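Handout for the seminar on molecular recognition.
Each group receives one record of this type.
Step one: identify the two inputs.
Step two: read the structure output and locate the region that could contact adenosine monophosphate.
Step three: write two sentences on what you found, then compare them with the reference statements printed after the record.
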Amino acid sequence: MRKIETIHDLRSGLAPARRAGRTIGLVPTMGALHEGHRSLMRIARQQCQEVVVSIFVNPTQFGPNEDYQRYPRPAEADLACCADERVDTVFMPSVEEMYPVGETTRVAVTRLTEGLCGRFRPGHFDGVTTVVAKLFNIVQPDRAYFGQKDAQQVVVIRQMVRDLCFPLEIVTCPIIREPDGLAMSSRNMYLSPADRKQALSLSGALRWAQQTIAAGQRDVAALVAEMREQIASSGRCRIDYVEIVDADSLVPKTTITGRCLIALAVHIGPARLIDNVVVEG
Ligand code: AMP
């Protein structure tokens, strides 16, 4: 496995594989790697001949009062994790490499970025689409792997790929959870043992909604009200949103019909946690 820090070295490093027609898979991450990231690497490893993992804590996707500074950066452990998953190349650029002095371009997907997390994290998705577009141009992968954990992000990136004609396939990978249901996240490290227990109310509420819908409930307002109540009664927290939207267009639903995304974002202790499930109406 090689570790590469510059765009120039990455391009020349991948040139032989590209010339040989080997399929290149890209797994973009911000590091602090866990089983969720590993699952993406494993799927990429199965489907591609060259696997590139990028590790870059992208400053443009953090708001001014968010956790950019304190975001975990365990570089050595991350490299060991990538080696363990038989990754070929780890791309770990500096901020200056990705955003050189004088850069002024941003990639923005409209409409799909207005609701859900976009409403509470202004500019977040512009940062995501900008860095992902740059990574796509740098690596030029055949496939790129994203987790359903960040459901809105996947919808937004798929739209960007269509709109900007990026010649690659987006592969969406399922959410990996702890045995008790908590969705894995680098931000789970921020949780105290009490927070960690309380955070189970998120996956618990989603599971309750899934079961209640399977039993016939179709009324979105009733579902959302009960989910909010379950989360609020778990302890001190701040709910950004609990919403049920069309899984493709992200337009809010009033009744459960077709593929619906049930998504939520909740602040518990120092962490802002997101989770979701997709249900069929
Ligand atoms: P991050 O490092 O948080 O930016 O995540 C990098 C990629 O890993 C994104 O595509 C995430 O959706 C994905 N990911 C993070 N956590 C999980 C998880 N628990 N299950 C599946 N994918 C995940």
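Reference statements: The first strand starts at residue 2 and ends at 4. The mean pLDDT is 98.
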